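Hi Y.,

Following your request, here is the sequence exactly as I used it, all 157 residues.
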Amino acid sequence: MTAHIPPDRAVPSQEAIDLVVALQRCLTNVHARADDAAVLNGEGGCQLATLVRYIESRRVRSVLLGQNLFADPAWDILLMLYQADLEERALTLEQLSETLRLSMSVTVGQIGVMERRGLVEEHQTSPNSRRRRAIRLSPLAVDSMSSWFSLAFGTDG
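Below is the corresponding structure, written out as tokens. Let me know if you'd prefer a different format.
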């Protein structure tokens, strides 16, 4: 679960952020060992339909108001990977890049940041190309995205 910082508070220091990330990783290890359901986790089917509508609404927003007005590639990648997780599949870097209409360098850069934060994992490797790496959300990211989804859409399933 991610920390919420009230608007009247100062942005935390990098040291505080690092401590939160370390705590999230510890909680992920606990979830992985205990085989517990994610915090605030709802039923996948209901979540998937709502998530697909949300992702599509973001695409329509860009079409109606202009692609360059909205730029949040990390969030778009997380959403696509969460959808793929609910559908029990992995996505390659090429699929992410093409689907989200991002350059390969932006996609690779964002995935690199997410890997360093423990949010994504390599699912399988193609010996031919780094672009063909299959990427999935880590248990930490699945837990965080599920919690976000439940809070954002007020669903428990």
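The CA atoms of residues 75 and 148 lie 12 Å apart.

Thanks again,
Q.
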